[in-house]
Amino acid sequence: MTTYQGQLALKDIAEFAGVSRPTVSNWRARNEDFPQPTQDSTPRRPFFDFSEVLDWLEKQDLLPEDWKDKAAYMAVRSAINPLMAFRLDPVESSILCLGLLAAIKRGYNGLAAAGGSGSAEMLKALKAAFDSLKDSRLLFIEPGKVLEPAESLSPEVVRTLIGGLAPVEEDSLPQAAVTVLETFLGKSGRSAFGSLSTDSSTVTQFLANAASTTVGKDDVIYDPTCGTGSALLSLQKIAPEATFYGNDLDAPTATIAALHAYLRGANATITQDDAFEAFTAPEEAVDTLLCEPPLGEKVGKDTFAALTIPLDLPSSSLMPRSEIAILVSAIDKLSANGRAYVLVPTQALTVKPFAEFRQRLVARGVVEAVIQLPPKFLTYTSVGMSLWVLRSLESPETTQSVAIADATDADAPADHIASWLQGLRKGEDIGIPSGIIDLGTLVTNGGDLLPARFLQAQDKGELVEQYVTSLDELDRSIQQLKDQVGHYSRSKNQIPTSKTTVTVRQLIQDGELRLLRHLHLYDRDGTIEAKTVGSNPDRDRKETVAIASAEDALVPGDIIVPDFVEAPVWVFDREGTWAPSRGMFALRVQGDKYRAEYLAECISAEYNSVDDGSRLPRRSTSQLRIPVLTLEEQDALVDWFKELRQLDQTAKGLSQAIDAAANGALNVVRFFGSN
């Protein structure tokens, strides 16, 4: 079907064929004619020639109906996969691949001919490709720096790269650009580059969906800190005639954005400058501005003072921080009907040095809405974030009130932000706590603009009902604890004792227990897909693994033993196919001398939590000792442990009931007499 020899990983084959990863492993195990791994791939991460995989799937009648749509994507993916094995810098790899695609779009045709040449000729062709971009305003770094990482690649990898990218047709270039960024900077390459968003990133989808509520098809759209340009260019579908402006201070990142915009065919101008100086870049007023500004960066005092002049706000009253400077600059740059959507740390809604700033913005009528977002909304920081929606000083809709919403407990805010904003503008119920505050309320509360503090239930009937319910729950918890304490008092003196102990390793050697550890169970060619349990019984891992046999899957009654002493030991009780994850092992009772619940309690005992001198003490089967008791004695002890656990849960419930009753009383005191 094709002679191109790009490389696919097993997960790529699964994605292309529309099946699970273990299914592909099953094909390998059961079909002798399945393509063999390439010579330069490793057993831990095998790669397979794209053309051979495509031919095999066709012969087996396993090609999905949409395989032609996926083929262009997979051709690019298979061309750049080998770069991952060389652990090149993700930003440098992105620029290398995007630059080659841009050179092809600009008419450079030397790549295809160089694909069959030697190493020197291929590198010469790469250099010529980037030289063709010198006067294109697409590169903010020297072409030579782009090619430095390519010089360390093997000839076969360079040949694969050229062979996969050279044939990409122009109408496939936008998808090719997205594929490059997702491969190097998306989920598979996030790590330290998590702040560089891609099309699939939550922040990209969030900002694009928010801006979609007001953007026009021919708007001037601007992102002063655009990163890869993904959020900015995501609006291209709904604003095909728009003029796009983007900027980033970092030269390599600005290069990625410029190449990305060019390959997607956007009418875009990308600059590389300080975000605040760059606000002068678009000569025309901005209709839609979206921005995820850098966090906590300082701004020069003179620059900051100049930015605050349009709002008539003394700059001396503010700390010159980047996120605040972005807000001020955005307002000044908007057209009369324009909107700015800016992500800002939540602390900017509450800290006292910004109180006058917030009051002045509301007084000028430029703050349309503020939405407080869930914790850890951004993947690369734990700093809480909020969305500010701003209007121009010249807006005909200016009012001295702000729509607020508290989305801290909401799921998938990127999916709902558009409907939230539309509902707030119509004054409708949006499914999360929301309301409107005016300037007087803001001033009365010391300039505090945090939605969560204003959106407390103040309905008097509801407050009383909550208080009465809390008292009923408190009475019930007290009585339940009394009943359990009485039963505990009768059974606490019936504890058995043991004269001998045995180690877990001895029990394994004697056949009383079977050891299940992930290293023994996982099979790269396994045909059974299993979910993995976490060290905490309430939090499972999201990863799946392949195991060779159903006998290797966990069954109810298996004992989950995390390696680290601090993690709890528990008895497995799930349905479905599960396996232990890394950092733990499982024990299965095979004889008739021990109860799983008894063994779990003993392994968790303090005398088995010996400090071995390491920072994180670990459990060892040779050191874990089990007192020898009869089954009847084990059952009696386990029953008593259950009583203790019930007492613990009831005591915790009582503590929560006490807190609820106290808070209910204080709410009645605070709000019942207010208007």
From TrEMBL:
Source organism, top-level taxon: Bacteria
Q: Which residues form a coiled coil?
A: 464-491
The Gene Ontology terms for molecular function here are: DNA binding; N-methyltransferase activity
DNA methylase adenine-specific domain span: 202-410
UniProt keyword list: Coiled coil
Query: What is the recorded name of this protein?
Result: DNA methylase adenine-specific domain-containing protein
Q: Which organism is it from?
A: Corynebacterium phocae
Per the UniProt record, the lineage of the source organism begins with: Bacteria, Bacillati, Actinomycetota, Actinomycetes, Mycobacteriales
